Amino acid sequence: MELWLRRLPYYRLVLGIFVGDGLGEKGRRLLVGVGGPDSRMHAASFVTHRQIVLDRSLLRNHRKNRRELARILYHEVFHFVWARLGNPLRLSYEVLLRQEWAESACGELGWSAEMRKLGLARRQVRNRERPWLEYVCESFCDSAAWFCLPGPGRHREWTLKPRFRERRRRWFLAADVLPRLRME
After folding, report:
1. Which residue in 7, 130, 23 sits closest to 77, CA to CA?
2. Taking a C-beta distance cutoff of 8 angstroms, is the pair 104, 65 a contact?
3. pLDDT of 120
4. For residue range 34-67, what is the model confidence (pLDDT) as tens digits?
5. Which SS3 state, helix, strand or coil, does residue 20 take?
6. Do β-strands 51-55 and 16-20 pair in parallel, antiparallel, or remain unpaired?
7. Can you tell me the distance from the alpha carbon of 118 to that of 108, in angstroms, rounded to the nearest whole number?
């Protein structure tokens, strides 16, 4: 696993990486030992503690599906980037998503963002309520993972149409968020 972490751009070994069996969530708290084989929760980040928790099943199968492990690790690491991104860039990304919302863009670049997007009401978007802000964060992390994965590829969770993907790709290039991954 450390090899994959070293491949992350600008990664510094300042994060604690923990492994648990059967990750789940209840009331915004991480539970270990509750999720079954069909659990959708593969990892969790705790930004203030500089910790990531991975489900052991990811590591058992990492040789079989290295890209999936990399995708999930990128997503979790980008929670730390989001926290350090600064309001102007966060708001810029939010404007991008508001434009997609106005154009009725369907799909996302990961399930964690898509499930939040599907549950949003217009009022929550308009008033910038917590579900909208959580969606913006998850969308950023899923999009960043998609952006950082090397080479072309497909994934069943990448359901956002190509024209919106291209906009996001251009946003990441212009925002130059990768250097913000430094955690010194």
Report:
1. 7
2. no
3. 96
4. 454 445 667 766 677 777 777 777 777 656 677 8
5. strand
6. parallel
7. 10
Query: Other CB atoms closer than 10 Å to residue 170's CB: what's the count?
Result: 11
Q: Which DSSP string do the residues of 100-143 spell out, in sequence order?
A: HHHTT----BSHHHHHHHHT--HHHHHTT-HHHHHHHHHHHHHH
Q: Are strands 29-32 and 23-26 parallel, antiparallel or unpaired?
A: antiparallel
Token pair 């024209």 in the structure block, residue = 163
- Phi, then psi, of 142 in degrees rounded to 5: -65, -45
74 CB-near residues (< 8 Å, 6+ apart) = 8, 144, 145, 148, 149
CA neighbor of 75 nearest in space, from 49, 26, 42: 42
Handedness of CA 109, 112, 115, 120 (dihedral sign): negative
Q: What Å distances lie between residue 24 and 32, 50, 113, 167, CA to CA?
A: 6, 19, 17, 33
